[in-house]
Amino acid sequence: MTDLDTYRDRARSWLEERAAGLRPDPGLAEARAFMAELYDAGYSGITWPAEYGGQGLSAAEERAFQQASRDVVLPVGVFGIGLGMCGPTLLSIGTEEQKRRYVRPLLRGEEIWCQMFSEPGAGSDVASLQTRAVLDGDTWVINGQKVWTSVARQADFGLLIARTDAEVPKHQGITMFVVDMHDPGVTVRPLRDMTGESHFNEIFFDDVRVAPDQVVGEVNGGWSAAVTTLLHERVSIGMGAARTERPASFAALKTAAAARGLLADPAVRDRLIDLYLQERAFDLLNARMSQEVKAGIMPGARGSVSKLLLADLTLDSADAASEILGPDAVAFSDEGKIARALSWGPGMALGGGTNEIMKNIIGDRVLGLPREPQVDRAVPFKDLKVGTQAKEAGA
Predict the structure, then answer these.
(1) What is this structure's pTM?
(2) Which residues are tagged catalytic?
(3) Can you list the domains of the chain with their CATH numbers?
């Protein structure tokens, strides 16, 4: 037995003992406790640098743990943004002090992170953001609003991008900050979506003061920092979905169709086979990308391919549920999973970048097609008629 076999068997035994019976969406205290145990057992941050709190192991151990946990839904969803987006960003461009302060508590579940980019007037065009950060002495003062922020109500810290120079074009005058979500000037309000749940939040910043050592990357270099985070986000969304339960999956719909005596219908069987093939192609793509990441080959813009395929698969799964189950698809049976999947489907084509944005990125940065014209790219931000500036101009 090789060392990797031993590592895999030890991980599998630990998971069987600790994760058996755990709910995928436990209370926050239970999730934190599990994350701490996962870290202490050596299975959180497996390939992250040991000097910042990671395990410092190789991609081989990471793959072994993934194999051991393949059939386990770990209750770590609330930590996903920190683990998949914020932590990797800090490791990529954060200061030495930021890495030593934030990475270990993040990996252990002691601190939860969110990402704050989108605004009411800056969604797909994030660079049009209007949240401002102004220097007052040596302290930055932030005012503005963010929206569609996941886990903001639970978060302890967040990565925020704000406008720090309106005299330059919109992509050049942005800075990224670490923001304390418990600051009295931060107000978080949940947004209820059509699933009946509040997956997202809107956030208001009123004179939130941030020290200069909380700048991530360079002042006015926030667009580059944001791109780093977004690349991690799209890879994380796509690859993370390959390990989570899909409520309207082939297996779930096959079970639901069988319970209703529908599997004898050749049209139902064809639809299920088509869905299975899509799922298999998606899972194989993510397996390949996961292997590349663990080998140190970052997907870059190719992460948008995974995100786009996930959105298409989610929408097609919802369509398949409607076609196969008819009115039963919207009945709150099966603990409401399929009904919620129908409601959640359209959101996946928006969150983390719309399908249209993903296609533009793939065409431009993966396929090398000509970029779409951007007439405002060289215009100083203060001269643009965007968001509230457009309203003030009567546009």
Answers:
(1) 0.84
(2) 233
(3) 3-112 (1.10.540.10), 114-226 (2.40.110.10), 242-353 (no CATH)
